[in-house]
Amino acid sequence: MKASKSVDGQPFLFRPEVHARRLNNSARRICMPEFPEDLFVEALHQLVSLDRDWIPTNEGSALYIRPFMFATDEFIGVRPSASYKMIIFTCPVGPYYPKPVRLWVEQKYVRAVNGGTGEAKAAGNYAGALYPAKLAQERGFDQVMWMDAHDFKFVQEVGTMNIFFVIGDKILTPATDGSILKGITRDCILTILRDKGYDVEERPITIDEVVAAYQSGQLKEAFGAGTAALYRT
Ligand SMILES: Cc1ncc(COP(=O)(O)O)c(C=O)c1O
């Protein structure tokens, strides 16, 4: 997540309690212990208060906050550890992308399968995505647009963000089905759009539908939603 400074110079966090909940949902999926959510939020406040001078104030920049947990048992083998370490580090960041992103629709590799760990913010999901992302970059693309692992037909998400399409007068985003990360920015965008009266649909979206909409001139916009993946000219 990120911390920013308000106009009067006070540090603030964006929805830390929702991040705390997702951390624990993710931990549960990979047999890691849950961390008390109120203690986590309190730790974040204390850390960001200590690091307040590192919060950049220029637009599009923020203090990135990365909690992570790893096993510390002195044991080699496949079983949950009995001990873990939880660390939160911060670093000032600018916009992630200097230009609009070009996405490669992946037809060979997969990020997540139904029943897998796609919905968890687990490091392994990112490790498996590095090589396909490298190949996409070699082809001149910035990131991979992941398809479903069964038919390579349904859009899932992008390496660093959830995805939205504006087709006709509707705003569409893939429904979360257990293999897509439930983005907190995605949730905010859906809430704001519905609040403003837009016609929003969370449902399975095929890549063919997106291509057909593009060809017929109905695809008005496509955008990503994520904490890190900010684009600014
Ligand atoms: C794979 C993936 N999908 C989506 C997102 C967007 O999630 P959020 O809006 O919670 O940052 C991220 C960012 O962390 C991500 O890594």
Task: Give a quick summary of the entry.
The protein is of the alpha+beta class and 233 residues long. It contains 5 helices and 11 strands; from the N terminus they run ββααβββαββββαβαβ. The radius of gyration is 19 Å and the shape is globular.
Walk me through what this model shows.
This protein is an alpha+beta fold and 233 residues long. It has 2 domains: 2-93, Aminotransferase class 4, branched-chain amino acid transferase, N-terminal domain (D-amino Acid Aminotransferase, Chain A, domain 1, 2-Layer Sandwich); 103-225, D-amino Acid Aminotransferase, subunit A, domain 2 (D-amino Acid Aminotransferase, Chain A, domain 2), CATH 3.20.10. The protein is 28% helix and 26% strand. It contains 5 helices and 11 strands. It has helices at 16-29, 37-50, 123-138, 184-195, 207-215, and strands at residues 2-5, 11-13, 62-71, 84-93, 103-105, 143-147, 155-158, 162-167, 170-173, 199-202, 219-225. A 4-stranded antiparallel β-sheet has the order 2-1-3-4, covered by helices on one side. Strands 10-9-8-11 form a 4-stranded mixed β-sheet, sandwiched between helices. A hairpin with a 7-residue loop joins strand 6 (143-147) and strand 7 (155-158). Helix 1 crosses helix 2 (37-50). The longest helix has 16 residues, at 123-138. It is globular. It binds pyridoxal-5'-phosphate. Pyridoxal-5'-phosphate binds at residues 157, 160-162, 181, 183-186, 225-228.
